[in-house]
Specification:
The chain is α+β, with helices and mostly antiparallel strands. The chain is built from three helices and 13 strands, in the order αααβββββββββββββ. The longest helix is centred in the first third of the chain and has 23 residues, at 19-41.
């Protein structure tokens, strides 16, 4: 017996709204919601969560970044924010950072022509430090103690030998005769920037550290930092707008 048009449409509707189909749709919605929460916690927008046959959305790279999971005292996540960022992992050469990736501790990052976002894990699962860095070259390390402090060691782009006389031809034009190295940072979490004559420990702030011929200068743009002077062995607390020069001996 042939089904009527109404019976056929009713059967089709029943198949399309079966419990399995409804559960699958619910799971897709929940997955998209979780991705949104992960991106928010990583301080990076996901862009549109909708997919398109015409290719990935502008936020696709940041969605990929959110899926990476750095391991405490093993590696960190690096993601390019703007400009050109170079990375040199231990035993390798400098290469351009074109997308988010996990790199081993001991990696050297060159941000003189760009901005990089760095994410590190803490001993407690689900917790970590996130910061953006620029205008310098630094090596990243992490301590097993001290609540997983992330160490950023400035690599001076100019030799201290240039301090003894007038500027030389081999000194980069962007550096003055008195400035040897620089690193600007902004982030949340426990970071320490090591210069030649001092170390600056921060916890969610905006700061800059400059290695100079006459010492290491720390400038606080926002928040509070503690500067340890390697020469006097004293610790100085700085607030927004303050600066301190740890003088060379």
């Amino acid at each position: 017996m042939r089904r009527s048009g109404f019976t056929t449409r009713l059967a089709r509707c029943t198949r399309e709204r079966s419990p399995a189909a409804r559960w699958s749709a619910s799971r897709r919605s929940a997955t998209l919601a979780v991705l949104g929460l992960v991106c928010a916690s990583a301080l990076a927008g996901c862009g549109s969560t909708a997919t398109s046959s015409r290719g990935p959305s502008p936020g696709a790279a940041k969605q990929h970044s959110a899926k990476l999971s750095p391991t405490f005292t093993v590696n960190v996540e690096l993601a390019p924010v703007s400009g050109k960022v170079l990375v040199e992992q231990p035993g390798m050469r400098f290469v351009a950072l074109t997308a988010a990736e996990l790199v081993a501790l001991g990696t050297v990052i060159d941000t003189r022509a760009g901005v990089v976002r760095l994410t590190a894990a803490y001993p407690t699962p689900g917790h970590g430090a996130v910061g953006e860095f620029q205008d310098g070259i630094f090596q990243v390390e992490q301590e097993r103690t001290n609540a997983g402090l992330v160490d950023l060691r400035i690599q001076n782009a100019s030799s201290a030998a240039t301090c003894g006389g007038p500027p030389r031809a081999n000194v980069p034009a962007r550096l003055s005769a008195r400035q040897l190295g620089l690193l600007l940072g902004s982030g949340t979490g426990r970071f320490r920037t090591d210069g030649q004559f001092s170390a600056t420990t921060v916890r969610g702030t905006k700061w800059g550290v400059r290695d100079r011929c006459d010492g290491t200068l720390t400038i606080v743009r926002q928040g509070v930092v503690a500067v340890t002077d390697f020469v006097t062995h004293k610790t100085i607390v700085l607030h927004t707008g303050q600066r301190f020069l740890a003088r060379a001996p």
